[in-house]
Specification:
171 residues; two-stranded parallel ribbon; alpha/beta; 6 strands; 7 helices; Rossmann fold; Lipid_A_modif_metabolic_enz
Length: 171
């Protein structure tokens, strides 16, 4: 938020239009960040993934194609001038719901290795999403829907498309 305040200050001095975009976890094919791809790689190569069974964390995501569409809509609409938008699909996920959707998207049977949050920290298992309630932060992405008519791709559909695109990389 500090940079946003600085931007607004400079805007007041120089009178230019700006748009602030605050993304949740961006995901999709060829993601540079090892988030969903970490799970997909383990499904394809190991037929197994870690599951933090006592995790209380929750999170939201934005499909990369939806993020790109949001950027296009902001560029094309003066309504977005001097506004801030959260880029976040409405579904609130947990590791359980994420893995359930991955099971649905995958054409490979895979097992889940239950691990506690404490054990995952000592074993340095690189879980990419919040593990605890305290680490969790949710965003309301409805302003983009209301003001710029953005429609978010359902998580199940976006994850399935991501899985199909990424599968060949890990074979």
């Amino acid at each position: 938020m500090l940079l946003e305040k600085e931007l607004q200050k400079v805007h007041e001095q120089n009178h230019f239009a700006y748009t602030i975009l605050r993304p949740a976890f961006v995901f999709g094919p060829y993601n540079y960040a090892p988030r969903e791809s970490w799970f997909i790689q383990n499904v394809i190569q190991n037929h197994s993934v870690y599951y933090p069974s006592d995790s209380t964390g929750h999170f939201q995501m934005i499909y990369v194609k939806d993020a790109a569409e949001a950027i296009i809509r902001c560029i094309q609409s003066e309504k977005s001038h001097n506004e801030a938008y959260n880029l976040s699909a409405p579904e609130v996920l947990t590791y359980r719901t994420f893995l359930d959707e991955l099971h649905n998207a995958s054409d490979v049977d895979f097992t889940e290795q239950n691990v506690t949050v404490a054990r995952s920290l000592t074993a340095r298992i690189p879980f990419p999403f919040p593990l605890t309630e305290a680490e969790s932060e949710l965003l309301d992405g409805s302003k983009l829907t209301d003001e710029l008519s953005l429609t978010y791709t359902p998580f199940s559909e976006a994850l399935a498309a991501t899985y199909r695109a990424m599968k060949g990389i890990y074979l």
